[in-house]
Amino acid sequence: MGKLAYILDGDNVRHGLNHNLGFKAEDRAENIRRVGEVAKLFTDAGVICIASVISPYRRDRDVCRAILPDGYFIEALLVSMIRTKYQ
């Protein structure tokens, strides 16, 4: 039997649950904390949660790591270079 999984996309979360937050450092911290809390709810229900968010501050990621059970927070860094050509 397969596993249930859900992608918790940062943009979608900002349109709903976190619609009242901006992009200042403290708002970003609260956004990531809330995503961590939602990820924990999914995890508690046995659902694999993949949170796709921009989280530039290590301290915010550490808050999420502390919310989830040991071994359930796996951090992946995706680096992409955007090149723009001006004419």
UniProtKB/TrEMBL annotation:
Q: Which ranges of the sequence are coiled-coil? A: none
UniProt keywords (A-Z) are: ATP-binding, Kinase, Nucleotide-binding, Transferase
Q: Write down a Pfam family by its short name.
A: APS_kinase
One Gene Ontology term of the biological-process aspect is:
sulfate assimilation
What protein does this entry describe?
Adenylyl-sulfate kinase 4
One GO molecular-function annotation for this sequence? adenylylsulfate kinase activity
* APS kinase domain span: 2-76
Q: In which pathway does it act?
A: Sulfur metabolism
